[in-house]
Amino acid sequence: xxxxxxxxxxxxxxxxxxxxxxxxxxxxxxxxxxxxxxxxxxxxxxxxxxxxxxxxxxxxxxxxxxxxxxxxxxxxxxxxxxxxxxxxxxxxxxxxxxxxxxxxxxxxxxxxxxxxxxxxxxxxxxxxxxxxxxxxxxxxxxxxxxxxxxxxxxxxxxxxxxxxxxxxxxxxxxxxxxxxxxxxxxxxxxxxx
Amino acid sequence: xxxxxxxxxxxxxxxxxxxxxxxxxxxxxxxxxxxxxxxxxxxxxxxxxxxxxxxxxxxxxxxxxxxxxxxxxxxxxxxxxxxxxxxxxxxxxxxxxxxxxxxxxxxxxxxxxxxxxxxxxxxxxxxxxxxxxxxxxxxxxxxxxxxxxxxxxxxxxxxxxxxxxxxxxxxx
Lengths: 193, 172
Fold this sequence. Notes:
The complex is a heterodimer. By secondary structure, chain A is mostly helical. Chain A has one domain (53-192). Chain A contains 8 helices and no strands. In chain A, helix 3 (45-52) packs across helix 5 (92-120), helix 4 (56-83) runs antiparallel to helix 8 (168-189) and helix 7 (129-154) packs antiparallel against helix 8 (168-189). Residues 1-5 and 7-19 of chain A have low confidence and may be disordered. Chain B is elongated and about 55 Å long. Chain B has helices spanning 2-8, 12-20, 22-29, 33-59, 69-97, 99-103, 106-127, 133-136, 144-170. The two termini of chain B are 20 Å apart. Chain A binds chain B through residues 1-7, 19, 58-59, 61-62, 65-66, 68-70, 72-74, 76-77, 86-87, 90, 98, 181, 184-185, 188-189, 191-192, and chain B through 28-29, 31, 34-35, 38-39, 42-43, 45-47, 49-51, 53-54, 63-64, 67, 75, 94, 97-98, 158, 161-162, 165-172.
C-alpha cells in the first residue's frame, strides 16, 4: 500500500486502510456521544453535498493550505524578531503590528475551511486522535500568540534587552515555532490515521 | 502531449528504473517514510508560499509598505530559497517512489510547468525591473512592472499549491 492517495483515504468505510496507526481508546461515554453527533452530521444536507461534489474537499483543502502558509510564516516572522534573528532595525512591537493581524485573519479562514471539511467527513476528523491533538495544539498556540501580542502592546521593548535577558520572550517565541510545526505535521497525519 | 513527447524521447524506461531503486521502493512500501517525507514537503512549501507572498505583497504596494523593498527582499528571499531547496529535495524523493504514475499525471506535469513559469517570472523581474531597485526601493508603490511581477508570482504559486493538492486526489 502506498501513501499519498487521498481519494482512497476520503472514505474509510468503503476503503479500509489496513496499515492504519492504532488509535488510543476514548472514554466510552464521550465516544458514544461523539458517534451519535458524527452520524447526525453525516446525514445533513450540507454534509451530503460536500461528499457528493468531488471538487469541494480538494478546493477547501487548497484554501486551507494557503491560509496555513499565511499563519505559519506570519507567526514565524514575529517569533524570529522576538528571538532577535531578523529585522533588528524594527522593534518587535512594530513587526508584531505588521504580521499579527495576518495571523488572526488566516486563523479565521482556517476555522471556516476546517469546519467545511469536518462537516463533509465528521467521523474522519472528530473521532481521530491526531485531529484532536491538532485542535489542542492550536488552542495552546492561540493562547501563546495572544499572550505575545498583549506583551508587545503593553511594552514596545518586549523581546529587546533587558527584557530578553529574562528569557520569557525567547521561550514564548521558540514554543510558538515548535507548536506551529507540530500543528502542520498533525494536520498532514490526519490523512494517515 | 505526453504521447507526442514520448515519440521523441521515451523516458518510461528511466522512470521504471527510478522507482525500482532501493530508496524509491523503500519510500513507497514503508508505512511512515512517505507520510513523513510528504510532511516535510508540505511544511517547506508552506514557508515558500508564505515568504514569497510577503515579498509579492510588498511589490504590489499592499503590505509592509513602510519597509524598503530591497531590504525586505534581502531578509526574506534567503528563507524562500532555503525552503524551496528542502521542498524540491523532498519532492524528488516523493516523485521517485511512483515515478511512472506521477510523470503521467496531468496535475504533476502542470505543477512542473507552473514552477518553470514562476522561475521565469522571477528571472525576468531581476534582470529587468530589479536592476535599478535602489531607485524605487523606498517608494510605497513600486513601479508597474514590479506590481505585475508580484501579481504573476502570487497567482502562479497559489495555482502550484492547488495543482499539488490535486495530485494527491488523482494519483493511483
